[in-house]
Specification:
The protein is mainly alpha-helical. The chain has five helices and three strands; from the N terminus they run βααββααα. The protein is 68% helix and 8% strand. The protein has a three-stranded antiparallel sheet. Strand 2 and strand 3 form a beta hairpin. Pfam families: MerR (PF00376), MerR-DNA-bind (PF09278).
Length: 128
């Protein structure tokens, strides 16, 4: 199913901000980092469908915890060899999964330790 915005060719910054629930300032930030390249008509930014697609990738990357550097590297291959893009993506995804698994293990260890401390404190409190 396509949304009405999937068939449009031009977007104002406010349109994209509203569609994705982000601020226009965030979009300008991504532009300042070279991740988006809207055209200009005077002082007005005009975003094309390609910019919208890149914004979708940026927001998905941020949501998945990738750095702006990682996202930039991926987007730099946007028009390049697809196999390079897929290879980079697979590498970054594998790194991200490994990091999240380490963090999960650390959290599980911390929770076990805190529960043990809580159990000991409850036992001491019950004896008092």
């Amino acid at each position: 199913m396509t949304s009405p915005d999937d068939t449009r060719d031009l977007f104002a910054i406010a349109d994209l901000a509203r569609e994705f629930g982000i601020s226009t300032r965030a979009i300008r930030f991504y532009e300042s980092k070279g991740l988006l390249s809207p055209e200009r008509v005077g002082a007005t930014r005009i975003f094309r469908r390609r910019d919208r697609a890149r914004l979708i990738l940026i927001l998905r990357g941020k949501r998945l915890g990738f750095s702006l550097r990682d996202i930039s590297d991926y987007l730099s291959l946007y028009d390049a060899d697809r196999s390079q893009q897929v290879s980079l993506l697979a590498e970054k995804v594998e790194e991200r999964i490994a990091l999240l698994e380490r963090q999960r293990n650390d959290l599980e260890t911390t929770i076990r330790e805190l529960r043990e401390i809580q159990r000991l404190a409850d036992e001491r409190f019950a004896k008092a």
